[in-house]
Amino acid sequence: MIIVLGPEAISELCLKQHHSFSHSKTIELLAEAGLVSSQIIFTGVHPGTVAKISTSLWEGCLELVRDIGQHTPTLNISQWSSRSILELSGTCVFGQESDWLSRYPCLLGSLDRRVANGQVKKAVLSIFPRLIRSLLMLTLCNRKDLADLGYLEYVARDLLQIEKRKLVEPIKPSYTINIISVMLKDGSLTDEEMLGHILIFLAGASETTSATFQWMILELCRHTAVQTKLRDEIQSRGHSLSRSDGGKSLFLQIEAFPYLRAVVDEVLRLHPAVALTEHEATRDTTIMNIPIPKGTLLLCPPLAANLNTRVWGKDATVFNPERWLSRGPASQKSTNQNPCSNMTFSHGPRSCPGQSIARKMLTCLTAAFICQYQVSLENPEQPFASTEAVYVKPIPDLMVQLIEIT
Ligand code: HEM
To answer: What is the Rg, in whole angstroms, of the alpha carbon atoms belonging to the chain?
Structure first.
């Protein structure tokens, strides 16, 4: 087993030599359960497609955030974000009505159990050193863990059928463009490939995006000045959620807000939701001139690249959105010199095809949330750790207090 840490070596692994390594573990697990073909190629969610769903995504975020106020000033962000990101995916990715989760009462439970199984394993494995533990966590995600995928498969098939029926029915006023309908109309994927895409959306995409949003809120609670600066940036451009259009026009400009973008980039850098990517050599090859025999396992922890002080400076472990602005020490320009200095979404043919939609969801949900509420930790003394499961989120659950901004 080899652990790949430096950006140059990662660059050879993911970009120059990618044809010498196997498919992603996620795909292999689904293939092992007979749910997708191991040869499946995920078409990226094209930025043009993401742009088409922008309006419904932004409106969905506003609605979710407004609904909180009707309930309680204290909120369990961990539970709220899992449910909210899944709800958003339902409307924007699968074209469902906003209450679609009620049709699948076991869905959240089966997703939660996948994470809970990870926690049990973590406890069992806690006698091992951290790195070995992470490795075992990955290899223990075997067929047994896939039991809940039976239910996910049922939901995925149902969602696909609903979307296919919509294509032949006359368009109803409530119909919204969504990613699955765009893929169906494109017609280049078979039903089984479509099913694979939906399963990935359900099983992996929501958990990763939700984990990142939880880190976002934790960092904003720890850095109230960043909250204020974010709010100022959005409101200084003459927009507020109380405007007559309910803030709907804001989404048109949202990605042009440099500070908001910098905050999202910094949270993604500091808290990559995927703990490890695993690569198996499918033939004899080399990395940085070191011979890699066929069958060798190579592990790449994204955090090692993302916290590399050579690239990000001495404050690599510090939450500092300013670094992304041109005056910062590690501006976008300098990190672009080697893309593998930031491995949150990986790089090359095996990189995350959902990154544009994940970024969009995080950007919109953060903007909607921060314009509506000032957020602080319920217990500011509470220490937080990271789960050592496949997806990395803060533990224990994040409890926050909200003050509505009038
Ligand atoms: C912040 C959220 C996300 C993060 C940090 C993330 C990260 C990653 C990473 C690191 C990989 C590579 C895994 C490997 O090489 O083993 C990956 C793969 C993948 N991601 Fe994401 N992801 C996120 C959200 C999403 C979303 C929203 C979608 C779908 C819309 C998605 C779909 C996929 C798929 C299909 C793959 C497998 C690609 C392949 O191997 O062909 N991800 N993701």
So the answer is: 21
Domain boundaries, the chain: 2-404
CA 378 / ligand 1 centre spacing (Å): 32
Q: Between residues 37 and 58, which one has the greater pLDDT?
A: 58
> In angstroms, rounded to a whole number, what is the distance separating the alpha carbons of residues 312 and 327?
14
Highest-scoring range by mean pLDDT, 113-122, 125-134, 218-227, 397-406: 218-227
Report which ligand 1 atom has the smallest distance to the Cα of 346.
10
User: Higher model confidence: residue 203 or residue 130?
Assistant: 203
Instruction: State how far the Cα of 189 lies from the Cα of 10, in Å rounded to an integer.
Output: 31
Helices (H), 169-296: 179-186, 191-200, 206-222, 224-236, 258-270
**Residue 221 assigned as binding residue:** no
Mean pLDDT of 318-332: 76
Say which amino acid occupies 359: R
Does 61 contact ligand 1 (Cβ within 6 A)? no
Quickly tell me which residue has 């069958």 as its tokens: 295
pLDDT in tens, 150-163: 777 888 889 888 88
ipTM of this complex prediction, to 2 decimal places: 0.98
Which residues does residue 180 pair with via DSSP β-bridges, in sequence order?
Answer: none
CA 189 to ligand 1 centroid distance, Å? 19
Structure tokens at 288: 């940085």
Name the superfamily (CATH) of residues 2-404.
Cytochrome P450 (1.10.630.10)
CB 393 less than 6 A from any atom of ligand 1: no
Cα separation of 384 and 215, whole Å? Answer: 10
Does any ligand 1 atom lie closer than 6 A to the CB of residue 208?
yes
pLDDT classification of 357: cutoffs 50, 70, 90: confident
Pocket probe mutation, ligand 1, options 193, 352, 357, max atoms within 8 Å of Cβ: 352
Please state whether 71 falls in left (phi above 0), alpha (psi between -120 and 50) or beta: alpha
CB 4 within 8 A of CB 131: no
Q: How far apart are CA 9 and CA 287, in angstroms?
A: 6
- Residue with the nearest Cα to atom 30 of ligand 1? 354
